[in-house]
Request: fold
Amino acid sequence: MEGLIEGAALIAAPDVVAAILASAVYGLVIGALPGLTATMATALLVPVTFYLSPIAAVATIITASAMAIFSGDIPGCLLRIPGTPASAAYTDESYAMTRKGQAEMALGIGLWFSAIGGIVGTLALMVLAPSLAEIALSFSTFEYFWLALLGLMCATLVARSSPVKAIAAMLMGLLVSCIGVENPAGTPRFTFGVTDLLGGIEPIPALVGVFAVAQVMRALLMPEPPPIPRRRFGSILAGQWALTKRYPKPLVRGNIIGVIVGILPGAGADMAAWISYAAAKKFSREREKFGTGHPEGLVEAGAANNSALASSWVPALLFGIPGDTITAIAIGVLYMKGLNPGPTLFTENASSMYALYLIFILANIVMLPLGIAMIRTSTLVLRAPRAAVMPVILLLCAVGAYAIGNNLFAVVLVAAFGCLGFLMERNGYPVAALVLGIVMGRMVEQNFITSLIKSDGSLAPFVERPISGVLAALTFTAVLWPVVIWVVRRLRPARLRPTEAAE
Amino acid sequence: MQLSDRVTGTVLVALGGLAAWGGSRLPAVPGQDVGPAAFPMLIGFGLVGCGLMIALGIGHSFEVEEDESTSGTWLYGLRALLPPTLLLAYVLVVESLGFLLTAAGLVLTVAFAFGARPRLAIPLAVLAPLGIHLVFYKLLRVPLPDGLLAAPW
Reply:
């Protein structure tokens, strides 16, 4: 209780309140612009967080990402272009509702159930993280190795992509993380005599490159999206309560799926949305209505992606293992601000943790009024021509990358990763797996080599310890899952449609 | 640029081979079995395996074709190289020209590439660098170079 009051005092500071409001507006606008993702919004925020107090820095990341995940629904609903990948699962459905003249209801579902999902996810984070922290105290390098590997494997289970290509992308990320002297032996690796490479490649320039620069490159080749017709919206939240009462099961299931997927290291909001939309369709009594503007799937998936966003902070805070690309950025910020992730965070920094929970809840409450304002002005925001938005984004990439270390080499890296991200995306290699590989590479190697040295080169302790045995089993399940699906699909080719089997 | 799986798979095999070869040449730590070479070699072999599978088309059935409607020839496709080129140009000239002029040039070029009219592009090229300079230089204290044209603050 004491910690709760201290936490509340921490976020009542004027700079934190200002940071929450400003980043909320920022997140809403970036998320609503087609092609500018929640991850990119967060990545471009990092240089700004350097100069904020620790709580304000974390608050900007949490608020901006939650808002961007919600407002990604707006262009999906009005233009059939998902604002962020997490909205892609149900874009067709909400666009169908718009065509039926129910745009208000579709957007209202996104808003209302996103807020509920966000709050449920936060409650899960509050309950689960401290109890898991007790178990985590007994973890040694063997368990950390498997956790990190499990995270990497989950990152390869990307919907609608070849698992082999995802694993290849992840391995490329790991290879990038080998660059530099930051390895257990301190030997310079793959630096090719370039001094700037000795320190290794930081995740942020890579993130900005593959998520922002690559997007500008892609936009140059695509025609301008059609302008949306001006329209006046009716009441946004009218009827949402009736929907809540009508679809209690999808709501609960969406939240549970979101929480579970979020807690899994390496799998985040996009995955949660795809899985829960498919689950809603599978268990619905009105399955034939899906795809024609039926609210049920939207309820479930809209709740799932926001609850995953909150619960993906569980592995991030406990082990420093990102739940998705957004928490991968957040972990970097946490380290920078002296809030090093780990089980002791909950005992030594209890008030900061309470502040973090409160920020999550606050962000999801602020989302309702600001989200309504955003929906009402969305016809204006979405009219912003790409020719005005893209130049500013590219300039922000350059300045943001430079600001991280006042080093121009980071801008070169951003350009290089932009090209890499563009090429990978074009050829079906998921870039999120690459990024998570870069972020977690050092952790995997450190724990792998340390464990091998401890066990004198023997592999047995990796599976003999009870918890590491369980984690190993989970990891192998994640690897073999696509194989199982493939076999099942071969055996019953007629019954499973590819979209259903993609999870 | 859309490449066939055969091409990207082969590139991955080559990359993995180079990584494993480069890793194997790293000096070992005296008295220890596993050193800095183990991890890159593991990754290298993994990449070779994945590359072979991709080149043979394994796992292709999981992919969902995105209908990216790109018009035009490969010459039109070269437009995509504009952003990274501009970033490199930024790195090369920002110290001598200064942030404001370099940024204005970058914004102007990208805006025109997206088909902006001068009515939009020119005010944008003036205001966006000033705004970003104000935030990053004044508020965040990032040392953006002055160069030929210093900001009024």
